[in-house]
Description:
Layout: E1 3-11, H1 14-31, E2 35-40, E3 53-59, H2 62-70, H3 74-83, E4 85-94
Antiparallel strand pairs: 1-3, 1-4, 2-3
Helix pairs in contact: 1-3
Amino acid sequence: MSAYFILMHTVTDQQKYFEDYVSKVLPLLAQHKAEIVVGEFAATPLQGAPPEAVVVVRFPSEQAVRDFLADPVYQPLLQIRLSLTKNAQAVMAPEFKMP
Length: 99
């Protein structure tokens, strides 16, 4: 069953974020058979005061999300992402199946 990695954060430097993080993480996501479903720097807040950017990535399974996050190749990219964002929140959730 698919699982979703949902990341919300505020990007402090969009150009560096694209150059230093996005360009390098896309091939790694492909290796983990992940697909970006949503990616927006200025999402519309509907309740509360969420961070500005939202990314939703579909993975083949929850284990695939964990494997991506634990991948040694991702660790330096994670540090880049953290250095270029603030107010980061991330969750993992399984695909919804009607009971």
